[in-house]
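Annotated sample (chain length 503).
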Amino acid sequence: MGKTLFDKIWEKHIVRSIPDGPGVLYIDKHFIHEVTSPQAFNGLEKRGMKVLRPQQVVATADHNVPTMQQHLPIKDELSRKQVQQLIDNCKKHDIELYGLGHPFQGIVHVIGPELGITQPGMTIVCGDSHTSTHGAFGAVAFGIGTSEVEMVMATQCLLQSKPMLMRINIEGELNNGVVSKDIILYIISKISASGATGYFVEYAGSAIRKLSMEARMTICNMSIEMGARGGMIAPDEIAFEYINGRLFAPSGDQWIKKMALWKELYSDQDAIFDKEVNINAADIEPMITYGTNPGMGISVNGRIPSEDQVAENEKPHFVKSLQYMGLQAGAKIKGKKVDYVFIGSCTNSRIEDLRMVASFVKGKKKADNVEVWVVPGSKQVENQAKEEGIDKVFQQAGFILRQPGCSACLGMNEDKIPAGKYCISTSNRNFEGRQGPNARTLLASPLTAAVAAITGEVGDVRDYLSTNITGEHSFNNLPVAQSGLLIEKTSNSPLTIDHEQSH
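Output written by the structure step:
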């Protein structure tokens, strides 16, 4: 019987199998940040231990950092203390830290891929649930708890039970205006926020194979939002081209050797999955959430379900969610006024996301009733956006490119949405209070967020989209500013920075 992609990686990393129990899994890369690492470092110190292999640990500050005036001391005392603890711990244990002020600082799941640290066939962990992002490269990547962070620091291994395996096949052509965020929101809306619990998911099919790496990362990022342990996509020429030439990617003879191994990373034709889901790409429309978990999603042109359309056991949560959101069952969401637009997070803060938004808002002005925050995922994304003139496009539209961090994805820093306000967000979670106490979050794609930024309400990007004979998108029927600005697209590669390190 053939093997799945997951099986091939898992079996190469099992150090020891425990009969009727978990396996000892070797971890290739361990990403850490300021929130879930302090207790783990403290645990090591109490036992008189050091980090076993610091060269396999990569640290950055992202969750608690401000996204304006990062050169100044952090105002919030807890955030300032956690960031300082990360600095002290990394210095003590000889761990590479991309902290504030470093040219590689950024959201942990953005910097790993852009630096070439994330590679096919790896096992990757981090004390953050959205570690599944790295699975877009054909890696087994998943989030771990603080006690497990300590375990990996001490042993470079982790006790893990093998999950069940699910494959989600998406075949066919996507409609105009539909992007990767719509794909994953559609999937979660169909199988629910718990529909993949206990599974590791592989995404496959012609629609997936045509996506860019940054689009694939968006999909794998939100695997956890349907209960999955992680998500992954088999690496191919698109993945290899993305990795090639990045700072910590293999080169020369090592590249040739790695490529020979990476090309074997796919699910065999006769591989068996515990569950398969088939989706027609043509059925997917621009999506938006209306409730308080990512599975509560509909087409932007759709209606919120009526109570009799909801399963009996889900009704209490459904009613509570709508009360929290201030929305009505059966109502249309299109045309709903919004107060904030947040474009950022480890889901949608890469250069392609910013280019997508800039292509829509170029030459236009934001709505007067909306405040727009655009937060790049890393210093490299920020610098590349400035190099391409994207920052000027945003400035002309009435919003500013801020500095890197997790920002308004979660209420752990200064970027919080005020109570009762509606925010269209490109992040990954819409739980109660996720973006601040009593904030109301509508998850959507960067394109849908861009529409809201300009019009001040939930809208369908397809109402403004036309496709010319070259297949390039242009946007019509929107208010235009006094002058437009062109975006000069440069390479997809990160900026070249002279920095000698190895991972």
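Annotation: The longest helix spans residues 77-93.
Annotation: Residues 131 and 142 are 5 Å apart (CA to CA).
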